[in-house]
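Same chain as my last thread, 183 residues:
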Amino acid sequence: MSNVPAPNHVMIDLETMAIQPEAAIVSIGAVVFDPRTGKVGNEGTKQTFYSELEWEFQGRLIDPSTEAWWLKQSKHARNALNGLDDLGESLVSLVNWLPQDAKVWGNGSIFDIAMLEHAYRQLDIDIPWKFWNVRDCRTIKDLYESSRGGWDKKAGGNAHNALHDAIYQAQYISTMWNKILKP
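reply #2:
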């Protein structure tokens, strides 16, 4: 029996139709990772979650300027706009997928996680994480850049793909975590 806990850190990224908490959600991407070891789940495995949602009829905010912004994105990014998954079913699937006692990360303290929590409340589904287990990428990035300088912002995968963005964010948080704690 190992004393090493199973990874329970989860990076979550959303693509949305506005920037407010009540924004329509286009897609949800999540990946399990361990910032201590740098291990990040791979696309297409049980360590990742991805859902492309039907967003036009969610009863959530659609900002016309964000909708126009989407039309200027790459064809690959715009493919997510054709999603058919139901928001409620996807939220329940995310609940069932999350590891026990998940520490959920978002890129910004008021964006991804706040939007998901708003959607869970809207649909009367229990939020699947404890409020004290919410983490923010930007805080770690600020600590890193304050002590080490800038960060190479080259992302992997396709920009504005929620799963690719979640994987990239988990990778850079793991790298920064280790460079801050093990100089």
